[in-house]
Amino acid sequence: MRITNLDILQNFKKKNYTSFPFPHLEINNALPENIYSSLKKEYLIFDDYFSSQKNLNENNVRIQISSEEVYNLKEKFKKSLWYDFIKYHNSLEFFDKLVNIFKDDLLIYYPQTFDLYKKERVNNKFLNFRSESNKFNYEFVSDCQPGINTPVKKVSSVRGPHVDNPVELFGGLFYLRDDEDKSIGGDLILYEKINKIYFHKKAEVENVSSLRECKKIKYKKNNCVFFLNSESSIHSVSPRQNTNNKRYLTNIIFERYKNKNFFFKLKRKSNIISKLKKLF
Questions:
Q1: For 89, which DSSP code?
Q2: Distance CA 258, CA 120 (A)
Q3: How far apart are CA 227 and CA 171, in angstroms?
Q4: CB 128 within 8 A of CB 141
Q5: Where do runs of H (alpha helix) occur along the chain?
Q6: Buried b (16+ CB within 10 A) or exposed e, 228-242
Q7: pTM beyond 0.85
């Protein structure tokens, strides 16, 4: 099988991309049906792996496996189509495609990062999969993380309005919903800022009344979404209703840790209050 058949961007068209409310793309039927069906069937290998996790019986929590873990357990995963899928979506070839798609907005948001990409792309220390040893030795690191959200016993959202880690440049999700899953919720919600916002905790929006919900990306099979991460890339997961079904998804990210590079800083009220106290 040609590895390009596993590329979830292979069916990308310009109509799939928009800069509002922040730069992102959505592709329905991202993979050919036969490829998708094979990947969905082989997802059982991860179900089996997650069966030993202590939090498997917790309500609506995220469990996932990193690329590093998959590579370290090569004998377990090597024969699976997922091994090639993960390898490809950590590759420079795939990163190049994302940069090309997001180029115009990348030049607006992070022009220095685009210059770095042009300058260092051919360097053998430019990109590798994410690990503690790779984080600060490469310009960028990536991860492709097959995962699940556990069944829902009590209506809840996996996560409210937030932005991703400020070290992340691109974030993506690939959905593999079960055909028999008729539950409601688990959709990706995109927000527009209507007033100044502040963050608290990890990267959660504190004043959610300053947001306007403007788009819902349905949790459905063979659907993928990618976005350029910034302070404006606010998103959440809609509450899931009670269900015995797991929510199947794969998370794909590209990050930069070198030189403690953050693409943006989170504005927090606590920081502003501290500064005011120092003035008086």
A1: H
A2: 13
A3: 6
A4: yes
A5: 33-42, 44-50, 67-72, 74-77, 81-89, 92-109, 111-120, 269-279
A6: bbbbbbbbbbbbbee
A7: yes
> How is the chain split into domains, by residue range?
16-279
Which of 258, 175, 186 has its CA nearest to residue 216? Answer: 186
Per-residue pLDDT 10s for the chain (280 aa) are 556 699 999 999 999 999 999 999 999 999 999 999 999 999 999 999 999 888 999 999 999 999 999 999 999 999 999 999 999 999 999 999 999 999 999 999 999 999 999 999 999 999 999 999 999 999 999 999 999 999 999 999 999 999 999 999 999 999 999 999 999 999 999 999 999 999 999 999 999 999 999 999 999 999 999 999 999 999 999 999 999 999 999 999 999 998 788 999 999 986 544 443 444 4
* Cross-strand bridge partners of residue 170: 228, 254
CATH of region 16-279: 2.60.120
- Among candidates 265, 196, 206, which has minimal Cα distance to 230? 265
